[in-house]
Amino acid sequence: MLPDISLRSLRRNTVFLLLLFSPVLAAKPFPEQAAMDLSGGLASTPASAIPQIHFPAPAPVSASMRDFTPYTNWLRDEMQEASVPGVAIAIVNSAGILDLQTWGVRDLDSQAPVEPDTIFRIASVSKTFAGTVASQLVDQQLHSWDMPIVNILPQYSIGTDVSSQQMTLKHIMSHSSGLMPHAFSNMLDAGVAYEGIKAKFHEIPTVCPPGRCYGYQNVVFSLIADVVEVSMGTSYEDYVRDRIFGPLEMQRASMTLDDFRADSNASAPHQYRGNGQWGVSTINPAYFTVGPASGINASVLDMIRWAQANLGAMPDVLPHSVLAMQHTPVVETPRGSYFNRWPGMDRAWYGVGWRVFDYSGLRIIHHGGGVRGFRSELLLIPELDLGLVVMFNADTRLANDVVPEFMSLLLSRTED
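RESULT FIELD:
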């Protein structure tokens, strides 16, 4: 029997979250729909209100912007001051690696060092891969963004309001489903696998009609795995391995707990124990069952390939048509998340599996991830042809600072 904590907590918090999130999460919708403004009313939003992605020729990188020593020195010093067990960092452009560093140990118990091919869990950065999968299905004309998800997966009844029947593939992949944010993440936290949660999809409260508001999801986001199975006749894990990992030569990337545990160069998860001390923590297997949301294991070398592909370096695997689908803003995200407190942030959206920011005059593409014992940050700046990958084997708040510190360095140099 499924734990009943999920339904009780959802019912207990439904009224509160409806009041809390309805005005705050109101966001720019898809162009053909209306937006709920901060007062709760409806306002027309023309297509021109959603900034579009484009692919300009990258600006030449000056000699001063090729030297990232001040940044890597800052990160190393901060990591050592916080006693973070291990870190891997790479700075890349579409043509190569500009900087690659690893520090610390992959396991405090064994003291084995972090290496470039050490495996980390990338947590919600996995969603960037899921966005590619969905975009590939649309690019291949297997589905359209506007097709209701119930037409693809008629076995599921999702949401408590009839408006949720209009939820589309794009709504799912952009966190604009209109469902209560983080629906059933509490069950994942309690160790319940995705297969044990799906029967309860009809209990998820509908907060607003699809496309009208932003609400981050893990369980619902993972419906893309079911879409792959019915559309391609293969598992999501096999699809990602065959269509993304293989072609991009992401040689150590994987998607299962068994793969993670079997890898002799896997980094252990660590949590803070207090008094400047970290300790090896446990893994919650349930988060591997929502593979599209949080299931990928990868090394910094693998993530270099992923960053470069998303900068347009590998169009035979990720053509610009697919990148444009993912990197174009869909729904505006509200204030409150750690990235919305970055000093250069002007506006923030969610695209398809990626966050999209206007940051001090630059368009940047980003996703962060956090799961028990790991943090990761991935940043792309297409205009400058730059990418940043930072991976921690610890639940460290330092992860919140790596992007704004990097941007501060870049902006100071572009102003010189």
